Amino acid sequence: MSKSPSNAYKIALEGAIALAQDLKTHPEAKAQFDALYQDLAADTPQAADLLKQLWEELIAARRASAFWHEMSDAEKHLADRMGESNIQLQRNYMRLVQEQ
Questions:
Q1: What is the pLDDT of residues 24-38, one digit of tens each?
Q2: 21 φ/ψ angles, rounded to the nearest 5 degrees
């Protein structure tokens, strides 16, 4: 029993989406999606165009998410360092007060 075309499209799309989870594998995801797009466009061009728009939105969302995650990590690191500096300043102040 052979796979139906729609099932093959589904499997190819799932693979591309899985690869799109990580920014490092976006080139492979794009290549896999492009192959899917070409096959789907031959059968149903309107569905292929709609799927391409959704794909582009998915990729943009993944990149935005990764950007904001990195910004959040940087902000956390900065806040941690500021907290450590504040504690050190308080300790230095207490030593200074005790010495006087």
A1: 999 999 999 999 999
A2: -65, -30
CA 67 – CA 91 distance, rounded (Å): 36
* CA distances from residue 22 to 26, 28, 30, 53, 63 in whole angstroms, order as listed: 7, 10, 12, 20, 9
Alpha-carbon gap, residue 42 to 38, rounded angstroms: 6
Q: 86: which 2 tokens? A: 């504040």
DSSP-assigned letters across all residues of 1-21: -PPPHHHHHHHHHHHHHHHHT
User: Which whole-number Å values give the CA distances from 74 to 36, 67, 80, 81, in the listed order?
Assistant: 37, 11, 10, 11
Give the total residue count for the chain: 100
The answer to whether the predicted template modeling score (pTM) of the entire model surpasses 0.85 is no
H or E element that contains 96? helix 45-99
What distance in Å separates the CA atoms of residue 29 and residue 44, rounded to the nearest whole number? 21
- Are 48 and 40 in contact, with CB atoms under 8 Å apart? yes
